[in-house]
Amino acid sequence: MNQIQVGILIVSDRAFRGERSDATLPLLLQEITAQGWNLNQSAIVPDEIENISAKLVDWADQHALDIILTSGGTGFAPRDITPEATKLVIEKEALGLAEAMRAASVKTTPYGMLSRGVAGIRKSTIIINLPGSPKGAIENFQIISAILPHAVELVKDNPSAENHHKINH
Fold first, then answer.
1. Residues 129, 117: contact at Cβ < 8 Å?
2. For the chain, does the N or the C end have fewer beta carbons within 10 angstroms?
3. Phi and psi, residue 57, nearest 5°
4. Is residue 167 part of a domain?
């Protein structure tokens, strides 16, 4: 299988306006690099449904990324609309990914119950909403990272996807 191509989309009004620096992108970059994956696209957008959905569509349709990780906008605040923007563009939900992240998060903090992040597939791209906090984003990514190469092979309809990968626990 070729190197997995990843996009990281940070959703934050304050980071977009330059009022605060984003700490999540460099940490996620370290994580995907450690997996041997390639950061193909990255951007920071405001908490606006049109900005988020347009970037997801562009990256999935024009850049043919394997995985798009979003960070931010998954909570209960009025401007937290990343899951809604994601649902507008995905063709299939990947409920197990979001459920696994929430289930593991709740073991660390009861605030994990407040995450509304979703995951799904658009064309041959897997889109995953991660929390906005750097710690939460990394922890959630680590929960699902081992299964993602197999998920990418399945989405790409790779014949070798029939052979299950060994997952280290």
1. yes
2. C
3. -65, -45
4. no
Which residue range is the domain that position 38 belongs to? 5-162
Residue 20 identity (one-letter amino acid): R
Residue 169 lies in a domain: no
Find all residues with CB under 8 Å of 142, minimum gap 6, and list them: 31
Tally of domains within the chain: 1
What pLDDT is attached to residue 161? Answer: 64
What's the confidence (pLDDT) of residue 148?
98
What average pLDDT values come out for the chain (169 residues) when binned by 10 residues? Answer: 92 96 97 98 98 98 96 97 98 98 95 95 98 96 98 89 58
Is residue 50 a part of any domain in this protein? yes
Measure the CA dihedral 92/78/20/12, to 10°: 20
